[in-house]
Inverse folding.
């Protein structure tokens, strides 16, 4: 297989996960509703992608109380940032390789 | 949702489909075994991704005989080439937008 394809990370394949990670690369901590509105996903869909990224240890979930209200925030881990950068590099290689052949 | 995310095409999300389309952008007609070896996919996995791309009318399947042997080849359609280029452009926007924020 071509090298750049090997480096494409299945954990980030879907548009939803590309979107989630793109948001978390910029914002330190993001809550569920902000992600939901930014990415226009349903609750169930967003939750399942967040869980997959948490299982891969690419993001960290924090539950806390703001006054009496529970608030859940999401934050990219160092491993998540690193892995996402590598994924973007692999996508860039794919794009470059396709453009060379045009 | 951010514009570049909207333009990411779900039909090309998986690594396998990125690989298939990358090959078909360069080679005019490719047979099953060449794709299988190039992308290192199982028969079932490759067949199911090819079927999805055929259903989307992004590739065309041709069955013919070479001597007495049946041969199946795959070819990107004009719509497939156009859609794949748009997908790569959207990925490029995603990458650029992430790099700006580093």
């Amino acid at each position: 297989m071509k090298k750049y394809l090997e480096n494409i990370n299945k954990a980030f394949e879907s548009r939803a996960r590309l979107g989630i990670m793109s948001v978390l690369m910029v914002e330190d901590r993001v809550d569920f509703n902000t992600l939901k509105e930014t990415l226009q996903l349903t609750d169930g869909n967003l939750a399942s992608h967040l869980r997959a990224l948490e299982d891969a240890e690419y993001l960290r979930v924090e539950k806390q109380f703001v006054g009496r209200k529970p608030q859940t925030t999401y934050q990219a881990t160092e491993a998540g940032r690193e892995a996402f950068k590598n994924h973007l590099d692999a996508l860039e290689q794919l794009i470059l390789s396709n453009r060379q052949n045009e």
User: Anything to note?
Assistant: The first strand of chain B starts at residue 30 and ends at 31.
